[in-house]
Amino acid sequence: MATGQITGIVKNVNDGTPIAGVRVQILTDIAILDTQITDVSGSFTTVAIESGTYNILVSKDGFQTGHYLHIVVPDTTITLASLQLTPIASTTNLYGWNPTTSTWDKILANGGALTTSNAMDLAANQGRYYLLDTGVVNVGANHIMALEIDNPIASTKILRISRVTGSSNDDITITIMRNSSFLAAGTAITPHVTNFSSTDSSAVALTCKWITQPTNPVTGGANIGTFVQNGDPIELDFSGRIVIGAGKSIVIIITNNSNQTHPVAMTVAWREDTA
Hints:
The chain is mostly beta strands. The protein has one helix and 24 strands.
């Protein structure tokens, strides 16, 4: 029985450089006769195989699989000099659901390695992540401070609340209200984008204001969460799960539960998505 061998080098079709770690398989119609892995120079040599006609499958993560059909192997060694693989181009607009963080994450495919970029990180890079900060406000004994964020009814954006932080040097309670508001003009505040290379303005004409007074000015809506400060600042991580569409609002109330005036600060973070 006459036998032969196949030798060759697998190269990158773009620049002609050899590719190490490529799987080279010699196939009949029904079986795999031999499998070899290319060395650092991209080279491989098969075992001795019976003379005949075969197909060759060339594959590696990060490259398109190569199919070479009807390769005739005589009773000698043949050299295949034209085995090539095409790299898979990076994909920048593919998203996948991340069950660990419960977010839609961007998937980048480059050289076969998949990495994820958190949706909030992506928004920050694209200039769609905002912070709204009240600064330090002196809230009277048993007074409240209320912060309102309105997404106008004509808005084409959705606000996805990432984080709410409230702090004081004493006992406070944070209450989050769904679709609530207060009529007083209050003190207007402006959200700022976290990408310093982006235009420092929200993509929508949000109404953002705060007020402090002895009685609760908030009307309408529903309470969706109450949180008590226990020594440390309250940091509520919502990861975009609070969604404020056009014509909707959120009010965050900080209550000073002590009998003295205390400094209070509040920060809200969100990303803006197209509706």
